[in-house]
Amino acid sequence: MTVVAVAGAGSWGTALAMVLADNGHEVRLWGHREELMQEINETRMNNRYLPGVELPDGICAYASLESALQDAEHILLVVPTKAYRDVLRQIRPMLSSPVTFIHASKGIEPDSSKRISEVIEEEIPAHLIASVVVLSGPSHAEEVGLRHPTTVTSASKHLEAAEMVQDLFMNSYFRVYTNPDIIGVELGGALKNIIALAAGITDGLGLGDNAKAALMTRGLAEIARLGRMMGANPLTFAGLTGMGDLIVTCTSVHSRNWRTGHMLGKGQSLEDVLANMGMVVEGVRTTKAAYQLAGKMNVEMPITIALHEVLFNGKSVKEAVESLMGRVRKHEMEAIPDLL
Ligand SMILES: NC(=O)C1=CN([C@@H]2O[C@H](COP(=O)(O)OP(=O)(O)OC[C@H]3O[C@@H](n4cnc5c(N)ncnc54)[C@H](OP(=O)(O)O)[C@@H]3O)[C@@H](O)[C@H]2O)C=CC1
Ligand SMILES: O=C(CO)COP(=O)(O)O
């Protein structure tokens, strides 16, 4: 049995806490809302974020981060990307010996263009980090909560750490693979949210399955283009954390990113959609970050740019579709010279 602190008691933190508790680990689920933490301990449910799922006895909810971290060998971070620096700055003075940081969030920080593992390494001194591991893949919390078969990837520069996390989570309904390509795994998980927003928009507009297949395929091409420039292994994007997560996020009604796009396609404003969602929609912020990165790295990302114009510059979705379809002719493999 291992003691794991889970920082972030939303949908995904709660579902992953359940997987760990099913595997016999002692799980300290930390959330910053005292009332919700008390309710979880009393009702054995997180009705706000994962309704209908009965939580195993191995989970104890904490409103005090310090108590949750006490004796924890590993810290699983599952807060929205925008909360990372704040949460890590709270954690830092509470650590006295190195721990493994596992993160399961999917986003890139705007302006700094940092991946989450880089933010962790920036905020926590090296002597307090045993390893950084990313857990990512096609995995909606609602289905993991039902213990439906799910596959994900554990990625780390250190294979032993990736394998340790694989063993920690793996069970009969949750299968974990390893991959050393932490850059590709983090970028795939973050960037697919942009394409899911765009796919939701085309679904909301009623543009059909051809348009959605086009967005997903050309979306993956631009993700791989940026990834390659940032040092990822292009093959990672054909795996669970690339194509796999792109499929689930663009096609599932559980996806908050797809749902947001769908409502935008139906004519609602971004502000209204986000105000009513009640959960994080990472793709909005990541569109900003990817737009900046595409400019900095000089990588062609037409879907990301079109979505950026819709979300932040008032371009109509109709105009965005026309501008994408009206681009000059291309070779399908044009920007991936190795494949020509
Ligand atoms: N849901 C899913 O199926 C999956 C989600 N992910 C990723 O996991 C990450 C978390 O998503 P998810 O759990 O779905 O998000 P939710 O919106 O369901 O929950 C987010 C949680 O984080 C809390 N939170 C927000 N800011 C802070 C803060 N500053 N300090 C402490 N807690 C904070 C929220 O609390 P409050 O109630 O106060 O807002 C809430 O409990 C995202 O990056 C997402 O992309 C990855 C795979 C699957
Ligand atoms: O990453 C996810 C599934 O793998 C969750 O996607 P959403 O944040 O769009 O719900």
From TrEMBL:
Q: Where does NADPH bind?
A: S11, W12, H32, R33, Y49, K106, A141, R256, V280, E282
- Domain spans labelled Glycerol-3-phosphate dehydrogenase NAD-dependent C-terminal: 181-322
Q: Which residues bind sn-glycerol 3-phosphate?
A: K106, G137, S139, K192, D245, S255, R256, N257
Q: Where is the Glycerol-3-phosphate dehydrogenase NAD-dependent N-terminal domain?
A: 4-161
Keyword line = Cytoplasm, Lipid biosynthesis, Lipid metabolism, NAD, NADP, Nucleotide-binding, Oxidoreductase, Phospholipid biosynthesis, Phospholipid metabolism
* Positions in coiled-coil regions: none
| Leader sequence residues | none
The GO terms this record gives for MF are: glycerol-3-phosphate dehydrogenase [NAD(P)+] activity
Which Pfam families does this entry report, sorted A to Z?
NAD_Gly3P_dh_C, NAD_Gly3P_dh_N
Q: What class of enzyme is it?
A: oxidoreductase
Residues annotated as the enzyme's active site: K192 (proton acceptor)
Q: Does the keyword NADP apply?
A: yes
The answer to whether the entry has keyword Electron transport is no
Instruction: Note the PROSITE patterns from the entry.
Output: NAD_G3PDH
> Which coarse location class applies to the principal site listed for this UniProt protein?
cytoplasm
Give the UniProt family note.
Belongs to the NAD-dependent glycerol-3-phosphate dehydrogenase family.
The free-text function statement in the UniProt record for this protein reads: Catalyzes the reduction of the glycolytic intermediate dihydroxyacetone phosphate (DHAP) to sn-glycerol 3-phosphate (G3P), the key precursor for phospholipid synthesis.
Q: What is this protein called?
A: Glycerol-3-phosphate dehydrogenase [NAD(P)+]
This protein's species is Ectobacillus funiculus
